[in-house]
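Subject: for your reference before the review

Hello V.,

The reviewers asked for a structural picture of the protein, and I figured it would be easier to keep everything in one thread rather than splitting it across files. Below is the amino acid sequence we used in the manuscript, unchanged from the supplementary table.
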Amino acid sequence: MPRTAVIHTDGAAKGNPGPAGIGVVARTEQGTVLFEHAEYIGETTNNVAEYTAFIQGLHLAREKGIDAVRMASDSELLVRQLHGLYKVRHPNLKDLYDRAVALMAQFERVEVCHVPREKNAEADALANRAITTRNGARNI
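And here is what came back from the structure prediction:
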């Protein structure tokens, strides 16, 4: 198993707050899929879903023995908060932010980058599928 991965994450909520799901797609740097994850996470906001997807991507990477990650998200808020450009003001996001930072510290290298929505289509499709089916599925 490669020790480096590019991980796309996305969270979606219909209604904001509303039914929410997360999607995660991890690939080698050459593009081979390492794992995918889709999960319904109940009723919550889009921002909570974005953070939950990001955290789940990191958890799954650690389970697979990956120690260097490039995390890609279309959530400008999440990326800017993790880069320290925006303060985390909402109490629900503060806990998730702290969990994300603690997980990131467990890797040798973490890069967090913003990608346009169209470059995150696979993770978005998984998050929306999770909402539609109301269950989680991990394809490894």
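For the response letter, the relevant points are probably these. DSSP finds four helices and six strands in the chain. The mean pLDDT is 94.

Happy to draft the paragraph if you're swamped.

O.
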